[in-house]
Give the backbone structure.
Amino acid sequence: MGDFMEKLLEVNNLSISFTQYVQGLNRHESKVISDLTIDIGEGEIVAILGSSGSGKSLLAHSILGILPYNSNVTGEIKYEGQVLDQKLKEDLRGDEICLIPQSVNFLDPLMKVSEQAIGECKNEKEHDEKKLRQREIFSKYGLDESVDDMYPFELSGGMARKVLLSTALVGDPKLLIADEPTPGLDSQSVKETIEDIKNLRENGKGVLLITHEIDVALRTADRIAIFYSGYVIEINTVENFKNADNVLHPYSKALINSLPKNGFNLTEGVQPLEDLPGCPYYENCPIRLDKCEKTKPNLIEHEGVMIRCFNFEGANNGA
Amino acid sequence: MIKINNKKLAKFLGLKAIRLLILLIVIAAISFIMIQLSPIDPVKAYLGQRIVSQEQLAIMGNYWGTNLSLGERVMGWLSTLASGSMGFSLIYRVPVTEVIVQKFTSSLTLMVVSWIISGVVGFGLGVIAGAKEGSWIDKAIKTYCYILQSTPTFWIGLVLLMVFSVYLGWFPIGLSVPIGQLSDSVTFWQWLYRLILPAITLSIVGIASLTMYTRDKLISVKKSDYFLFAQARGESFWGIIKNHGIRNILLPAITIQFLSFNELFGGTILVEQVFAYPGIGQATVAAGLRSDVPLLLGIVIVSTIFVFVGNLIADMIYEYVDPRLRSDEDE
Amino acid sequence: MNKTPWYNKGLFSSLNLRQKTLLTIALTALVLLVIFISGTMINVNLPTDFATRMKPPSFEHLFGTDWMGRDMFLRTIKGLSLSIVIGIGASVISSIIATILAFVASMNKYLDSFVSWLIDLFASIPHILLIMMISIALGKGAFGVIIAVAFSHWVNLTRVLRAEVLQINTSEFVALSGKFGKSKLWIAKEHILPLVLSQIFVGTLLVFPHAIMHESSVTFLGFGLSPHEPAIGIILAESMSYLAMGAWWLAFFPGIALLIVVLLFDIIGDNLKRLFDPSQANN
């Protein structure tokens, strides 16, 4: 398990909530991410799999230090063993940690895409070097030179996705955060994107893949963390995810059992929106215990798998 | 950077010219009708206290068409206009065209100076306030704009006049050349001297709206995903403001500034009245109050063209500079 | 993707900011009401007393007295109350015009070009000139001023609403509704009106400051109202003749008072805007 190696990224007990003024100026505090623990090693791809709109993007924003001012964050993020405070985040983002954003809205509408891929440069020389690199990467994705001078609104969905991917690759990051990199791509492009992310792994880079497409997670990741109602409920290897018997959490089992042969988007399912006192999966759980209603299980290690379920807490103690 | 398709531009300008022509005809007709409906008797207004013969009265009546129907009078007025004549000013006793050219040139300096000052200062303050949203400097700029937007132009002029002319005595109070007399015997320094207070007043007013607009635009850019992404890529704050912020707000801001010709002209009328600045504004008020109908109608037409030019430039900026609209129409 | 307003799901109330906003609106409205009512109770023909003419501000005469010995405070309040009436009348009429035109424009391409043309037409004449012309045409009196101001102030709100409606019209959900065979009227009613309603309301309030300022401007120039009427513009125009004598209070206080009234309306508009659009309060 490479325990002796320093993890590239470690997130411990991260919680993110917001104070909002809603209609009529009422104050409202809402929790989006609760007690999230996850780690990524060098040359490893870890997927966070959760339904769309569940706020998992905020994990990425939190790592990059770009959360809005009204957010409250607790917990700890470490990068190569160092606590990642705001200062360090600002130093690392764009260089060692790069984001592959969600949509074309993340590009400046009035800037040519090649310039955006190149980004802010200190001088002409840096610009020229990055320009070559940008061209190289664009060609790799089949974006010819005419694309360089295009504005984001001129890109087709697939082209936009490739441009977004390129923006992260022009630098030489150690850790990539891919925030929903695949929706809107045709199956060939999805395959290419997956290949590319896997290639990054071969180069020793760590990738945090945030997605709601279980198919993409299975084809890309080494480990998958299931994000349910703001909580990570299980982190298991992709091998184990290929068989429902090998995953531990009842939700994970349900997920795999319901998986059709080709492609399944983790978009539906009623997940509680408010933070319940007990286990977030209590309502739907087939193996729930009495204490699950009132007390919340912690994320614990059970035979090398991270699991948030009381059924395994006992087993662990027994063993 | 800006590719201009000549054929498209010609078509665009051609359409605009037709539009202006229609606009002028309609506005000339409407304002003529409004004056006709008003209690002003153009013949009486024209003659004032002078005693004229019956014959002259008939000529006057013919000229103003008091014996014709409204429709005929409108057509008559329009055909006079089409022949290039705007008539004879009653107050200044010279052709309207001559009065307008002289007065408008004088006002144009005032307007251009304050337009540039308010544009540069307004945009700068807006960027600072928007970038530093929530800070004391933002609050100070916002308060300044807030108060100025609620202040009538002429009152700002009055206050400046009270402070700088009456209290401090830096500027004389009555700067004017008497109404009805064309002033052309002023030296450059005298002219500059009398330009200062009116120009400051006029630009103070213009700054407020542009600053607030720029500030709001920049704040919405700051909330955009691309701003977030630029941050995530480690670009520096002021670098993002410069590269993405100003890039995205400069065009709308310039456009807004060109669209402000209307307020600029209105402001000039008020400011000239307060400072007795001998320009088109004073001429307008005099024409309105003393029923100088030909001059008033002439000014309406000229000011319409002035505002139209501002709007036209604003349109062209959008059509030809913003890439999103630019290529939308490429066939 | 992240569009579901998850923060809207529960309304835990800590009414702090909400209460403050409502309180501000209530207090501001109260002040304006008091000014308005006291204004209507003041006799137009204020007592003249040549013994106390041109007196600077004192406890007896807060805003001083004018050349006829009239109390400037009372004249100012009277003028403000007239301004409020004209301002409200003009902004309501102009918003009605704006709303109707914005929706007319959304119906089809030809009507849209017609409305754009109307906007061009009215935006092409400087407001003050237009107001001057209309009030010359309608003769002197408050009615003429209200109509004149209303007809020169619908342009901006119409532009905003038209653009807004246009944008909503090109949005995905409207396109989808169109594909589902919903009529334009249905879309206008179900999708567009609710989205622009608060804008219309706030727009009306935001027209007010402009209306009141144009009213005072045009009366300052000597148009619209006859010189014996107690409008702020007329009071200020009158003060011009006495400025050189140092009678600063004649121009200063009425102007400041007008500024305060305009600001109060602005405050109401802004606070209401925040109530409707909470995203602004989160900053």
In short: Chain C touches chain B through 41 residues (CB under 8 Å). Residues 8 and 40 of chain C are 45 Å apart (CA to CA).
